Amino acid sequence: MLSPNKIILIGFPGVGKTTIAKKLANILSCGMIDMDQDFENHYKTNISVFIHKYGEVVFRKCEYERLKVLLSASTEMPLVISTGGGTPCFFDAMEQINEQAVSIYVKMSEKSIFVRLTNAKKKRPLVQHKEEDDLREYIHNTLSQREPYYEKADIVVKGEDIDVEELAWLIRRKWENPGVVPN
Question: At what angle do helices 56-72 and 93-100 cross, to 10 degrees?
């Protein structure tokens, strides 16, 4: 398998990055890491508590450090990593991701994101106390800010009707031809 041997899924919270990462890891016979879970294991606290105690700025710095560790980790098998929604949008994270991995943006409409976040069993730290109108505004504003980072991904897939088998095929093609951007 050609380098980079890491696949990074990016996108707004709730678009299914972790679920897709698990399926991809299974199809491609890769390892899989969820960055939120990695963060909580490393710092021995959940993200909501961490942000409440130290603030989002400190969280983003620590999250970036974890990203760098995961990107530089030597692994025997390829690795699929699902990031937090803001991970690629701070510091030079997106540049680091694109230099050291195949990046995939799981893109969804604001309406689909709203439905998913509203119906999620696990509430996301930055949206857990928002009322419906506030949540819609938060999604609109935050997605507008983050989209320029997300759009830098090697591969952009529509999250509403994603075909993980086809995505695995695109990744294999990217590994076989690193200079070619699949469409």
Answer: 10
Cis peptide before 4 (omega within 30 of 0): yes
E-only strand ranges, the chain: 6-10, 31-34, 79-82, 102-107, 155-158
CB 82 within 8 A of CB 159: no
Are the C-beta atoms of residues 128 and 121 closer than 8 Å to each other? Answer: no
Each residue's pLDDT tens digit, 116-133: 998 887 777 767 788 889
SS3 state at 140: helix
Domains of the chain: 6-176 (3.40.50.300)
Cα of 135 vs its chain's centroid, Å? 20
Phi, psi of 125 (to 5 degrees): -55, -40
Q: Identify the DSSP state of 2.
A: P
Q: Do the beta carbons of residue 33 and residue 24 sit within 8 Å?
A: no
* 10's tokens: 């990016």
Letter for the amino acid at 35?
M
Cβ atoms 87, 10 nearer than 8 A: yes
* Contact predicate 61/67, CB 8 Å: no
Structure-token pair, residue 174: 């990217």
Does the pTM surpass 0.85? The reply is: yes
